[in-house]
Structures are given as structure tokens and as C-alpha cells.
Amino acid sequence: MTGHSAVIEVCGATKAYGTGTARRVVLEDVHLRLLKSEFVCVVGASGSGKSTLLHLVAGLDTATEGRIGVTAGRPAVMFQDHALFPWLTAGKNVELALRLAGIAPGSRREQARSLLALVGLAESHGQRVHELSGGMRQRVALARALAQGTDVLLMDEPFAALDAVTRRVLHAELLRVCAERGTAVLFVTHDVGEAVALADRVVLMSSDPGRVVAEWSVGLRSARGTDTPDAAGLVDEITARLGEEADCSARR
Ligand SMILES: Nc1ncnc2c1ncn2[C@@H]1O[C@H](COP(=O)(O)OP(=O)(O)OP(=O)(O)O)[C@@H](O)[C@H]1O
């Protein structure tokens, strides 16, 4: 991997599914680089290959061409569906991840407690997942992802199923936790407002095939996470460009 502090480096990644006349190029020559502690949101129309890109970076699928480098082993992944064990307590779910990360049995319980406290669930250690609200479950999922102890977190619409207020609270929590731990985040969403609220950088993908076609540095334009006129202007600008891309792909 080139560059000192890049934690994710995607170089010319192409992904095609099928063969012969059924071959379909979903991603084409995608380049993307994330530095330590950087928060990058990927937006694009449905089917533009955002999830596919995340799967490639996660090592859940392989690129047809190109190279994908991730430092510090396997990144943690968090999806819209929390995928927790509902019959286990919040604490046990996190402890399980700690066990898989090779943490010694004696310190798992304490570490699970402090991770749950970090995501604002200090009191819920002993509660079973099925007793928790949707927002609380996503917090447990975040604690479990953090339990893997990696510098890189990959998130695919993790808050899409939550109401606006809960989502806002979790945005603030996520930014705080990642800043505290120096975690880099690659976050997929089709909500441009969410992207501008969270990201240092927003990357826009085209469809058919998915390519990185535009990029905005949010920090240069507005303070993230706030309802400033600059942030609203940036949301409008990115949304307009997203619309142009959707029109282009509809004409192809
Ligand atoms: N295993 C697969 N086999 C064949 N085609 C696939 C496979 N996985 C994804 N695709 C196709 O790749 C394209 C991109 O899918 P992907 O889920 O990455 O898009 P997306 O931008 O994340 O979409 P959305 O915003 O709707 O979640 C879609 O047309 C999808 O049908």
C-alpha cells in the first residue's frame, strides 16, 4: 500500500458479474483512498455499486480487476440489519466479538461493559437484544463492530431503518466515538443529507457502470453535523449532481 497513513486504498477496482452476453460491469476503475480517522460517505443512485464496493473493501467479495488494500487486517462491518443474536444480552453479543478478536476471557466482560458505555448503553449490558429499541440495537451493533479493534469501520446504510431523531442522535454518537478512537469510516448511504452531516468527504458514484464521478470536501464548505446554510447548499449541489447522473444512466 502506498502513502503512509492510508488505511484503505482502492486502485482501479472493477467488478463484473456473469459471463458472455450476461456479463455486467457493476464497478469500473474505481479509485478511492481513505486516511486514518477520515470519514468518507459514498452516495449514488440505487444500483450504482455502493454496496458492492463496500463488500470488496470488506473482503466479502473479490474484484475482477484492480487492487484493494486495507491496513490492520479485516475491517469491521455494520449493515442496516444489525445481525445481533436476539436471545443473547447486549453484553454477550459484544463479548462474542471480543472472543473472536482474540481477547482473553478474563477481560471480555469489562471490555464489553466499557464499549457499551462508549455507545451510551451502560445500563443495558444485561438486557436481551429483543428487548431493545431499534436505535439501541444499532448502538449494540456499533459496540460489537468496535470490539473488533480495527482502525477501519465499513457501514452500509446502518441507520436507514431508524426514525429521524434517533438517527441524529446516533450520528453524533458515531462521530464522537470514531474521533475518540481515530477510526476511519467508509459509509454508504443514498441520503445526501446524512452524508453531508457525517462526512469529511462525500464521493458520488455513477451508475452502469459504477465509477467515482465527483467528490466534495465537506470540511471546506461547512461545519459537518450542523444545519448551516452552507451545509444545505452543499446538500442541494450534491443532490442536483446525483440527479444528473441518474438522468445520464437512464439514457444509456
Ligand atoms: N452477486 C451478484 N450477482 C449479480 N449481480 C449483482 C450481485 N450483487 C450485486 N449485483 C448487481 O450489482 C448492481 C449494484 O448493486 P449494489 O447493491 O452494489 O448497488 P447499491 O448502489 O448499493 O444499490 P442500493 O442503493 O439499492 O443498495 C445491481 O444492479 C445488482 O443487481
From TrEMBL:
Keyword line: ATP-binding, Nucleotide-binding, Transport
PROSITE patterns given in the database record: ABC_TRANSPORTER_1, ABC_TRANSPORTER_2
Annotated ranges, domain ABC transporter: 8-232
Coiled coil: none
One Pfam family in the UniProt entry: ABC_tran
GO molecular function, one term: ATP binding
InterPro entries (alphabetical): AAA+_ATPase, ABC_transporter-like_ATP-bd, ABC_transporter-like_CS, ABC_transporter_ATP-bind, P-loop_NTPase
Full protein name: NitT/TauT family transport system ATP-binding protein
UniProt key word Transport: yes
Spans through the membrane: none
